[in-house]
Specification:
The chain contains 9 helices and 7 strands. By secondary structure, the protein is α/β, with parallel strands linked by helices. It folds into 2 domains: about 80 residues, no CATH class; about 200 residues, Rossmann fold, CATH 3.40.50.1460. The strands form 3 sheets. The chain has a 3-stranded mixed β-sheet, with helices on one face. Strands 1-2 form a two-stranded parallel sheet. It starts with a helix and ends in a 14-residue tail after the last helix.
């Protein structure tokens, strides 16, 4: 319920302050092994079709840019994985790879490659990140980190030290595709948080239990998936101006409430009045965010 309250507040306050909701651009990077290097003899049916279906959902229903990278073993798979992520961060074009196998073992460590996406130093990525990991022991990737600006989440196909079914009706990817199609049809106009996507996946596939983690262990907000509508020139300029304006400072204020819960009417009124109070106080506010309610 707290996430629903936060989403309601955020939507209302953004509308009041004319702040863009969601993201200007969303890019999806899908990583797979080349045919013959995975454990699935029916690679085309078991792997290619589900990945194609997932790509179709992201591109045609969410309007996200989507790229598929095949890792091979003619060159170091680790270098290819690192390169693919680096290219993705730079919003580069298609990452072309040779199609014949070779001398390297088909092994690449995700924990090494993802450091580029978790980098919190100056010059590192500024975007929110959602990892969707359909592999055995995916929850073992969760580890602590720190951040003050970004949201980085991991949705894993199974819990820690647990295997997950391969491609097919019981796979995480199959449940993910069905959940995305259902939610974009149901909530496409307003979007939905990753917590709702997680619950929908659990509804469709209860075992093994898919897990949703906050990679930075802050648990302040969830990433929201919303289909991207192509803005006109004026809207795009407004969005770009907002994201280019840097945050120079922030204030964290704690409200001690007399009620355990707020009604929707209270939340909406709260969201409308806070920007007005800042304006009346001559405080130039860039954005107001509801982080959590305890």
């Amino acid at each position: 319920q707290n996430e629903a309250d936060r989403q309601l507040f955020q939507s209302e306050v953004n509308k009041k302050m004319d702040v863009p909701n969601g993201y200007l651009n969303v890019g999806v990077l899908m990583l797979r092994w080349q045919k013959g290097l995975d454990e699935f003899p029916k690679h085309d049916q078991e792997v290619s079709i589900p990945i194609g279906d997932l790509k179709e959902v992201f591109e045609h229903q969410f309007h996200y840019e989507c790229e598929i990278v095949e890792l091979h073993n003619q060159k170091s798979p680790q270098h290819q994985l690192n390169h693919a992520i680096a290219n993705h961060l730079l919003n580069s074009n298609k990452f072309e790879l040779p199609k014949c196998g070779g001398k390297y073992n088909p092994t690449a460590l995700w924990l090494h490659a993802e450091e580029q996406l978790l980098d919190e130093t100056e010059g590192g990525p500024e975007s929110d990140v959602l990892f969707l990991m359909d592999c055995c022991f995916a929850s073992n990737l969760q580890k602590s980190s720190t951040s003050h600006q970004r949201t980085v989440e991991l949705m894993a196909a199974s819990s820690k030290d647990t295997k997950t079914p391969g491609p097919g009706e019981k796979s995480f990817t199959t449940a993910l595709i069905a959940a995305l199609r259902h939610l974009v049809e149901k909530d496409g106009k307003t979007g939905f948080p990753t917590s709702k996507l997680h619950q929908e996946i659990l509804h469709r596939r209860s075992e093994p239990v898919a897990m949703l983690f906050d990679r930075f262990n802050r648990h302040l907000k969830r990433i929201k998936l919303t289909p991207l509508d192509k803005p006109n020139a004026e809207e795009r300029q407004k969005i770009e101006d907002f994201f280019q304006e840097p945050e120079k400072s922030s204030v964290v204020i704690r409200f001690s409430l007399k009620e355990a819960r707020l009604s929707n009417c209270q939340i909406e009124a709260f969201a409308r009045e806070l920007p007005a109070a800042c304006e009346k106080s001559d405080i130039p506010v860039r954005k107001i965010e509801w982080l959590k309610m305890e």
